[in-house]
Amino acid sequence: MASSYWYKDVLPFSAMVAVECTNVGVNTLYKAATLKGLSYYDFVFYSFAIATIVLLPLVFIFRRTTGLPTFQLSLLYRIFLLGVIGFLARLSEYIGIEYSSPTLASAVSNLTPAFTFILAVIFRMEVLALRSSITQAKIMGTLVSISGALIVVFYEGPTIISIASQAPPLPHHFPLGSSQTKWVIGGLLLAVEYLLTSIWFIVQAQVMKIYPAEFTLVFLYFLFATIVSAPVCLIAERNFSAFRLRPNIALAAIVYSGIGLSLSTIVHTWGLHLKGPVYVSIFKPLSIAIAAAMGVIFLGDALYLGSIIGAIILSIGFYAVIWAKAKEDLSEDSCCVSLGSSSDSKTPLLDSNLGSSNNGTD
Fold first, then answer.
1. pLDDT at position 349
2. By C-alpha distance, which of 263, 277, 281 is closest to 222?
3. H helix runs in 168-298, sequence order
4. Phi and psi, residue 245, nearest 5°
């Protein structure tokens, strides 16, 4: 009993919290590395390459323990599309963080459920019943989430916490007019990143129906993302010496990102199988508090009133969508149980009638 509680409750909770801390830690360490001159092109390419190397032995281990389904060549272009989308999403994310902060990235990340819901409706993966309270909660939650994210992006507000930082000014690659302009551009880039992430979820769901082998698909995704990012990053960076790794904070950020990216994907996959998507996604708002604390403590970032207000509004809308999804799953489960129990109740009656007819025949 104790082991079952540990495996089904304590271990998933601890793993999901650790994943959120890891993801925020990657963004925070990346922001610190950019202050030392790390280019986001180098960071994206090396992160995908290291994640591919980390997952390579796991694919062979998984293949030996459990058999793999037959691979279809038609899947390659879908997985390649996943690699392109993932690369563009990562690039948008890290450019957005360089222009803003990890706290803003964590706040805007809660737009992912709203974007995913809208795309699922467009692609008819989600059914809309406007008179249903569940559908109304999804729509209202989606609108509230978008409103909260817009507040975080466009309203900075007075400073709540400010710690003097001796870090050099933030490097950038575009001529921007003011810090407020950089903040808005960073927020918009982060919104694009999470829109691309939602598109990635939609495509991945279709691929998983055809080839339900998580480790192999994730490995091939990272492999294609590495192949796509290599020429793009080399052409965009132009300074080939920037790709030379040195033992400094940039190298630590790259290695930590590659390992964390691969492990977080594995943990999320395991959590989806064990607890379902609602349980996994409900930990996402936790990243706002983690990012704010890490940004203030390790980067000397200021905490603004607009970030707090927007994050609260965004989280309310996010939890409304999650609540509606949980109620929907619960109603579907109860419907399946009632159908199963009704069919079971009819079976003995049928058997008794057959038995009595057989006795009469005999």
1. 41
2. 263
3. 179-210, 214-237, 249-274, 277-281, 286-294
4. -85, 140
pLDDT at position 153 is 67
Question: Which amino acid would we find at residue 202?
Answer: I
**What is the tens place of the pLDDT at every residue in 239-264?**
777 777 778 888 888 898 889 888 88
> Residue 67: which pLDDT band, with cuts at 50, 70 and 90?
low
Written as one letter, the residue type at 361 is T
CA distances from 185 to 114, 168, 191 (A): 21, 20, 10
What is the spatial distance between Cα 210 and Cα 243, in angstroms, rounded to a whole number? 38
Which residue is associated with the tokens 């737009």?
111
Distance between terminal CA atoms of the chain?
A: 51
Angle of CA points 263, 80, 104, to nearest 5°: 50
Q: Which residue has the higher pLDDT, 217 or 301?
A: 217
Q: How far is CA 63 from the centre of its chain?
A: 26
* Residue spans per domain, the chain: 2-334
Helices marked H in the chain: 2-5, 11-34, 40-65, 75-99, 102-108, 112-122, 133-154, 179-210, 214-237, 249-274, 277-281, 286-294, 305-361
Does the pTM exceed 0.85?
Answer: no
